[in-house]
Amino acid sequence: MERVRRERASTGELDTPAQRPEGSETDLELLVHGVGGTTPEEMLNDPRTVRITGDTTAAVYRRADDVHAETRPDDYRGGPVREAYVWSNLTSGNGTRALWLLLLPFMVVNLAHWMRPTTRGRKRTIRLYGLLVRLAGVTLTVLLVAAVCEVALDLAAWQCAGTRACAREHTWLSFLSPSGSDDGWWSQPGRRLALACLVPAALTGLLWYLSHRTWSAYESQQPMSRGAEPDDETGRTGLGRPGFWYGRRLVARLRAAHTAAGFLTVAAAVGTSAARYDRAPGGPAVLDALGWLLDATLVVGAAVVLWVVCRRGRSENRLDQELDRTLVRWLPLGAIVLLILTLVYAGWSRPDWHSAGRLPGDMTFGGIALVQGLLVIALGVVAHILYRALPNTRTALRGLAGPAVAMLACALGGVMSGGVSQRVADWLDGTRQSIPGPPVLLTWQASAIPPLLLVLVVLIGRLAWRTWNLRRREMSTVKADYKGEAKDTARTRRIASTRAVAALTDRAPLMVGVISSVTLLLGTGALAGALATEDPPGEAARGTYAFVRGAAETAEALGSWLIGFGFILFVTWGRRAYKDPAARRTIGILWDVGTFWPRAAHPFAPPCYAERAVPDLTWRMATWTRATGGRLVVSGHSQGSVLAAAAAWQLKPSERKRVALLTYGSPLERLYGRWFPAHFGTAALTSLHREVACWRNLYRLTDPIGGPVRLPGDCGPQVDSEPFKDPLAHGRTERQPLPAPILGHSDYQADPAFAEERERLLSRLRPDVPGPRPEGDAQGSSGRSSG
């Protein structure tokens, strides 16, 4: 019987609550789990669960006994029916998603788009902020493709295949190597480059395919259609706009532009080398003219790509269901056609052309680094202007979090591109020094890593000192919190240490700000050094003091090793996560936090799971309240509380009044409010508190993620509870005969105070059952809580 019921539920044959008539007096509690995920059986504390709605990716479950709860309201007058929304497969499902780790720079730059400071008005400045981030995203795509071109075209096809000593060591390159009078057809440099360019072209096509495939699974899910609420001065966030979670038009447009940028980068790497040779005195006039025509066409193509990226960004005030089909279809196709014509041009016979030295990679990587630095500086100026319009001391880095994170994204891209180039060069040549190796700029950038790590060590030492001092202060606080219990010094120290380490989350802006600033300064020095001399740092320091020369050589060698080690570490993590479910879940947690936001700056970033989860929750909440007329409690833990808040903002005001929020271990203010103030700032959270029926937030001092919401005035005590005691007992007691664990961010339901707070919230939600108010509740809260 149970099996039949499960099959009927999975096929939609069960009589779901949304199909029942209005007038039900049953309340509903919708549970939303946090990062890492869980099972519906664990959430509902019952081994027998039934899927009410949804699919294998994300679904709502109930206990088997509660499937027809609305038809038996008398059985549920003592408490609400419980449902569990399980969304973990959106991020940490199969092993292929572990490969998203290689797209980390794209994800980070996309986060920078949403980190702009909160402001009023200044729409043009806000658009300029988004434009600068999108341009930074394009440079990252070009950097990635250029790095693969450096490996495949320069190191392999141009340098190694063009050098007999290197080609002999790698037999798979022998058919490309010139061997004297009987040179093969592929031995000419232009043809070698044309063949090698298939590698970066295939990578660009793969990124396009992955972006399009994930678009079909995520951005294609339509939110509920409704009218936009009028903008006012109450601090309403953009997360409540009808089109916020439906950005498929922008993603499609950016995907076309970035795909075209990738193919144009490959065409430039192949075609400009042949055109440079044809411009030499005595070259064929026809090929010389074709070279100039190719360069002009590449410039026009780049201008078109920039025009597409600079066009207006997201449309959030309505469901934008139109697609720029002509643009999306023809822009990548035009770039592919130009690449094919470039391959034909480069493959034309040039018997006297021989490869020597490096391809002009220094100019390419130097130009990308210069543009990225200028974009980050301009982004910092714009962010500062926005922050000055409406300053808030809780905002991370005083509004400069977006530029700092964008700088980190560019640095990650540089580390990955430099790492793969260094390791491939070492693999091809070893210690023979038969080929010139990667561009000098990459060596200068690698030399900047040891000083950066030294700054990082100093910064970690400073944070460790502050943590040690905070632990000393917490020792007395812990003793006061457990007054009357037997004290154990080791136990007290462990609790105090946990609280001190949890407080490090609030120091994250300092870490990001310092690392980004030092990275910008060292990157500027590396670019200046590479432009001033064609030699690596060790050679450039010849003739100076022995100490300076030794330091430069040490930084060069150590940096080259570290940058390669960093890339290998990325690949190793991805490989391990592909095979190991535990490691896959850990990486999935990173995406849970990093891919909450829609892809607004980079289309090749990992997909936004919230574009599926938020509409799921909104549809469930709206349809249930309309069909039953009942009241609803959304109970969200950790990241689930962020999804719950985002879904509540998507409801109509009349439906929002029938919803209560219970959040615990919530990063709504501690992380999202500080780092994304334009959408989760104080004004937005205060507005949410006023618009829902009631809201209660629970947290612990030992929790490194969750924290208080910190609403101003009387709103604060209404929302935030007193910190939960963790652990429940200092030592062994009558109620806790065994040592109680320090729970931190997990198992909030294990605390008896959780059940009390939950019951208090339910009492406030029911107008006919008077219940106790939280201490400090304002006079008018009961009227708002009545829903």
TrEMBL record:
Keywords: Membrane, Transmembrane, Transmembrane helix. Residues 1-27, 221-240, 707-787 are annotated as: Disordered. It comes from the Bacteria. The chain crosses the membrane at residues 128-148, 193-210, 256-277, 289-309, 330-348, 368-387, 399-421, 441-465, 508-532, 558-575. Residues 1-10, 722-735, 755-767 have a biased composition (Basic and acidic residues). The keyword Transmembrane helix applies. The lineage of its organism: Bacteria, Bacillati, Actinomycetota, Actinomycetes, Kitasatosporales. This is Integral membrane protein.
